[in-house]
């Protein structure tokens, strides 16, 4: 299988310094999408990426997305779309990544200049965007170049979609993907996104699911203005008392959601799915280390991972309008807004969840017999995503992992969301695979973000190997 891979791998090894230089150039462009004054740097990064792709012989287009909503003085950075190869006998794979980064300042606590790639003696390559997501994006370019240098035929047609607003809500991208699904992206047979992380540091994974999120507010009001408890305590019904009682009815100490009917919406656990959990490289100590405590809910790894990935959770986030400063202010807040969210999983439809939440909150408030007013509403909702890990897109990636890393990958889900995943699936109707390059300790979004040299170089091999296996894999739509 895929006999040309040895020559390709050898070329990647011999070009590794060149690939690290390419990453160094990319990290040096501070393409922070959240900072208005750095918008020209984001655009510069998009143009740099387009030029690199052109020099590799790809067809490249910079697509403008117009003005930024709510910041009309700013143009959104362009989406870089590209095509490498145009052979109708080959499969076509669409890949996505982003070239913008999170903000980073030395004062935040970085040990090295965030926009200078700094490689330490353990091969850790520090720099903003190294792992999220410039390393993986350049991985695709490096894979193309190593094929050319090695004289190995590129196994697929590659469609690329690299955006510059991911760290700021992917403004404008959903409509773009929907519009291009039947145009620029129309030949895509499957989609691959490299923009997440291994569960740990040693074992690679393929990710096939993400939870959704529905975020709610409960607003309770009564008095016309804030009151003094020395004067009005004991004479007026207090909104804060009602809110705390309603919020406390939502979930218990073990994270069990108390809203009637929620459990019935959750897809039952099948034997096939259960079997995926046993081998996953994860321990309770991993959990305790990342928690910074031993206050986990479940004693075992399987149920803990299921709690994060395949069951819903409800978190209480805060109360707007409540007294939260240090000290002992004797205020009675006149209006308070409690915030909570539910991480949703298959088969919880957004509308069905809303209905149960409103019913529960209204009943819980009614039971208090309060004269105050209670309103519950949805702030925003994003849907969960789950793909079949038996699809050829996944089995091909699994073979590539085994070839490069010598182990079968863990099949993982994530507790959070990557909204573009669902957009690609819905717009193209094709299977989407999340194929991470970096590891759990890379500190994406945090200070001292890094990508290990090993993950980068082996990751380039992995992306290339994936394309070879995906070209050979029987197209069973399992
Ligand atoms: Zn990212």
UniProtKB/TrEMBL annotation:
Chain positions recorded as Mn(2+) 2 binding sites: 98, 132, 195
Keyword RNA-binding on this protein?
no
Keywords from UniProt, A to Z, are: Hydrolase, Manganese, Metal-binding, Metalloprotease, Protease
Q: Reply yes or no: does the keyword Hydrolase apply.
A: yes
Biological process terms in GO annotation? proteolysis
Pfam families per the UniProt record, alphabetical: M20_dimer (PF07687), Peptidase_M20 (PF01546)
Summarize where substrate binds, as residue positions. Answer: 195, 228, 330, 343, 417, 445
- Family assignment? Belongs to the peptidase M20A family.
At the top level, the lineage of the source is Eukaryota
Q: Which cofactors go with this protein?
A: Mn(2+)
Marked site: Important for catalytic activity: 228
Domain Peptidase M20 dimerisation residues, every copy: 210-366
Q: How are cofactors bound according to the entry's free-text note?
A: Binds 2 manganese ions per subunit.
Where's the active site on this chain? Answer: 100, 166
Any one Gene Ontology MF annotation carried by this entry is: metal ion binding
Query: What's the protein here called?
Result: CNDP dipeptidase
Q: Which CDD domains match?
A: M20_dipept_like_CNDP (cd05676)
User: Which residues make up the binding site for Mn(2+) 1?
Assistant: 132, 167, 445
Organism listed in the record: Lepidopterella palustris CBS 459.81
Matching entries from PANTHER family are given as: BETA-ALA-HIS DIPEPTIDASE, CARNOSINE DIPEPTIDASE 2, ISOFORM A
Q: Which Gene3D superfamilies match?
A: 3.30.70.360, Zn peptidases (3.40.630.10)
